[in-house]
Design a protein that fits this description.
Blueprint: E1 2-4, H1 8-11, E2 26-28, H2 31-42, E3 46-50, E4 56-60, E5 69-73, E6 79-84, E7 87-95, H3 96-104
Antiparallel strand pairs: 1-2, 3-4, 5-6, 6-7
Length: 114
């Protein structure tokens, strides 16, 4: 999956955490990594690590030592950032609506909270 790293945070137009301004980039997320993350979410087996910038990144449990997808909900809840562990400098930015559309397709998905 190729995802453009665009959005308010990627363009530095607000919505970002201090020190996290990003240039637009193309992020390549292998389908297998996306599927593994989706499977982990569907059975609620994701782990979290907090980076020094304060952002909490989720990833599938037991995958830290291999290539994996990392996902972070940005403060304010309007954006979700996605990156591969093999290239943490490139981030794809999804709107929360895009994230909910993706997560609704997961096995056992529940509707988003209102």
């Amino acid at each position: 999956m190729r995802v453009g790293g665009r959005g308010p945070a990627a363009r530095g137009e607000g919505g970002q955490v201090a020190g996290t301004e990003r240039e637009p980039a193309e992020v390549r997320i292998p389908r297998a990594a996306l599927d593994a993350f989706a499977a982990a979410l569907s059975v609620r087996t994701v782990a979290m690590r907090t980076w020094p910038d304060g952002i909490e990144w989720m990833y599938p449990v037991s995958t830290w030592d291999e290539a994996h997808l990392e996902v972070a909900l940005m403060p304010g809840g309007e954006e979700v950032w996605l990156r591969m562990s093999t290239d943490r400098s490139s981030v794809a930015v999804w709107s929360i609506e895009q994230w909910w559309a993706f997560s609704r397709e997961l096995p056992g998905a529940t509707p988003p909270p209102v």
